[in-house]
C-alpha cells in the first residue's frame, strides 16, 4: 500500500468513533450545567453583597468604638484613668447607638407608611365584605319571600295586636296580591278589630303600612331592610355611609293625621 493510502486510512481512523446513546442527552446536560453555573453565580453575588454589608456594619461599629475610646481617653487623662476608662466606654456605646439610629432613621417613615397602608387595606376589605353580605342577604331574603309569600301573615298579625293599639279605625295598606292572602286567612280578625284593608300597588310584596289618626306604622319591605342595613353599618367604626340610614329603625312616625 502506498504512503498516500496509508495516511488516508490513519486520518479516517482518527475521525471515526463509535456512537454512544448518552450523546443525545448532552445538550440537556449542558443546559443544566449552564443553569447550575448561573445559580451559583447569583448565590456568590448575594453572598458577596451580604459580606460587604456586614463589613460596612463592622466598620461603623469600629469607628464608633474608636471615637468613643478617643473621647474617653482624653477625658480620662483629666479626671483620672479609672473614670476616663468608664466614660470612654459609655461614650463609645452612645456613639454606637447614634450611628445605628442615623443608619436606621430613613427606614422609619417607610415602615410607618407600610403599616398605615396595611391598616387601610384591612378596613377596605372589611367594608367590602359587609356590603357584599348585605347585598347577598337582600337577594336571599327576596327569594325566600317569593317562595313563601305567606310570611306577610305574621307581619300583619303582629301589627294587628300591637301595643298600644292605634286609635280610630286603622287602615292596613298592602300589595293587592298580599291583600287577597290576608283576607283569606285573617279577614275575620281584622273585621273584629274594626280595621280596614286597603290595596296599594306601590307597596312591594311582603310589606305593609298602617295609618290611623294617631300615627303610622311603616312595615314596608324597604323600611325593614333599611333598618337592618343601618344597624349593620353602625357597627363599623368610621363608616359614614350609615348616616343616611340612621333613622331606619324609626318605623313608628307620629303624624297626627290619617294619610289614608
From TrEMBL:
Source taxon at top rank: Bacteria
Primary subcellular site in the record, as a coarse category: cytoplasm
Subcellular location: Cytoplasm
Residues in Flagellar assembly protein FliH/Type III secretion system HrpE domain copies: 103-227
Keywords, in A-Z order: Bacterial flagellum biogenesis, Bacterial flagellum protein export, Cell projection, Cilium, Cytoplasm, Flagellum, Protein transport, Transport
GO molecular function: cytoskeletal motor activity
Key word tRNA processing present: no
Keyword Transit peptide tagged: no
GO terms for biological process, alphabetical: bacterial-type flagellum organization; bacterial-type flagellum-dependent cell motility; protein transport
Region named Disordered: 19-40, 232-260
Gene Ontology annotations for the cellular component aspect, listed alphabetically: bacterial-type flagellum; cytosol
Residue ranges with Basic and acidic residues bias: 236-260
Family: Belongs to the FliH family.
Functional note: Needed for flagellar regrowth and assembly.
Protein name in the entry: Flagellar assembly protein FliH
Native source organism of the sequence: Halomonas salipaludis
Amino acid at each position: 500500500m502506498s504512503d498516500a493510502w496509508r495516511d488516508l486510512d490513519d486520518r479516517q481512523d482518527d475521525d471515526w468513533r463509535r456512537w454512544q446513546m448518552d450523546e443525545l442527552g448532552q445538550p440537556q446536560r449542558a443546559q443544566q450545567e449552564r443553569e447550575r453555573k448561573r445559580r451559583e453565580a447569583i448565590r456568590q453575588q448575594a453572598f458577596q453583597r451580604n459580606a460587604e454589608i456586614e463589613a460596612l456594619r463592622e466598620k461603623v461599629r469600629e469607628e464608633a468604638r474608636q471615637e468613643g475610646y478617643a473621647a474617653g481617653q482624653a477625658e480620662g487623662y483629666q479626671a483620672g484613668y479609672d473614670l476616663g476608662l468608664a466614660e470612654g466606654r459609655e461614650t463609645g456605646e452612645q456613639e454606637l447607638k447614634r450611628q445605628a439610629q442615623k443608619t436606621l432613621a430613613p427606614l422609619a417613615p417607610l415602615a410607618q407608611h407600610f403599616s398605615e397602608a396595611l391598616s387601610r387595606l384591612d378596613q377596605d376589605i372589611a367594608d367590602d365584605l359587609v356590603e357584599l353580605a348585605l347585598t347577598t342577604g337582600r337577594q336571599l331574603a327576596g327569594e325566600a319571600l317569593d317562595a313563601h309569600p305567606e310570611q306577610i301573615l305574621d307581619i300583619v298579625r303582629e301589627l294587628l295586636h300591637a301595643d298600644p293599639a292605634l286609635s280610630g279605625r286603622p287602615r292596613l295598606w298592602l300589595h293587592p296580591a298580599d291583600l287577597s292572602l290576608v283576607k283569606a286567612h285573617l279577614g275575620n280578625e281584622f273585621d273584629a278589630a274594626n280595621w280596614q284593608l286597603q290595596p296599594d300597588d306601590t307597596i312591594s310584596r311582603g310589606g305593609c303600612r298602617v295609618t290611623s289618626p294617631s300615627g303610622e306604622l311603616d312595615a314596608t319591605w324597604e323600611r325593614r331592610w333599611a333598618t337592618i342595613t343601618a344597624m349593620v353599618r353602625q357597627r363599623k367604626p368610621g363608616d359614614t355611609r350609615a348616616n343616611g340610614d340612621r333613622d331606619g329603625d324609626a318605623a313608628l312616625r307620629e303624624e297626627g293625621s290619617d294619610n289614608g
